[in-house]
Amino acid sequence: xxxxxPALLLLRQAVRRWLDAHPYDDVxxxxxxxxxxxxxxxxxxxxxxxxxxxxxxxxxxxxSGAVAQTAATRARALGCVTAEVVAVTVGTVGGIEAAxxxxxxxxxxxxxxxxxxxxxxxxDDQAETVLLGLARxxxxxxxxxxxxxxxxxxxxxxxxxxxTTRQACVDLGxxxxxxxxxxxxxxxxxxxxxxxxxxxxxxxxxxxxxALARTAEQLREDGAVLDAAxxxxxxxxxxxxxxxxxxxxxxxxxxxxxxIRAWLLGGGAKSLTDKHLRAIDDxxxxxxxxxxxxxxxxxxxxRLVCTREHGRLTLGFDNR
Length: 320
Fold this sequence. Notes:
EC 6.3.4.19, tRNA_Ile_lys_synt_N, tRNA processing
């Protein structure tokens, strides 16, 4: 039984709402040993019968294996039916943050079986994610933030502040692991957490993180409606895998670019940017005989290119 402190009650309510909305026979927890995932583990065990912990050892710091084993031991003590440590090798693509994330999610995907994986992301993490997306400048979609459930990833704590998970650990007598990387100023997210958000809170009078999270939620809701409308248009303007320009040109820009995005993704395109979408949109509305637009998703020997030919947008490989 958990003590009925304000922090723990808030966490239990958040996890209960998530479980009610997404009923599963069992769930897995991505446990790092930090305050967020440790508090989430304790509360999840109190709210559902079968909780498995997955601890990813990134092997980036000396003694990381011992830290991972300690987290797994705590998970079992809290009531997890199993606690598995998965060691990974972190690559270099995209920098250490991105490479570690890629390795971590791959390990969690492999180890989860059929269960969803609950992540300890809080409202503060959501605010940081929105600011990172805003800096990319890739349109509204880039500041949608994280979803409460993006299968198989579940985030029950997106309405809970980070301070609440820390207080829950205090209430439970648990000392969370403090990852040195979380105070390393070389990482952009750390500087957002320790410098940018506190400054925004000071300058704008507080409540910045909740406001950013609300904005992300509103944009996701609006985006879902626009995406559904774009899918309906795509069905109408796609013929034999191509897009008919005359059928698309009269649509509003926000819908037109969404149609193009959905079509490109369906054709194997990856890592699409706002620059890609606008350049391809110009093939529709600002046609002056320009060449094709290369997008991600090709191979080592061939680029994936969108071109306009005979009144149609086509997607194919261009051998280099």
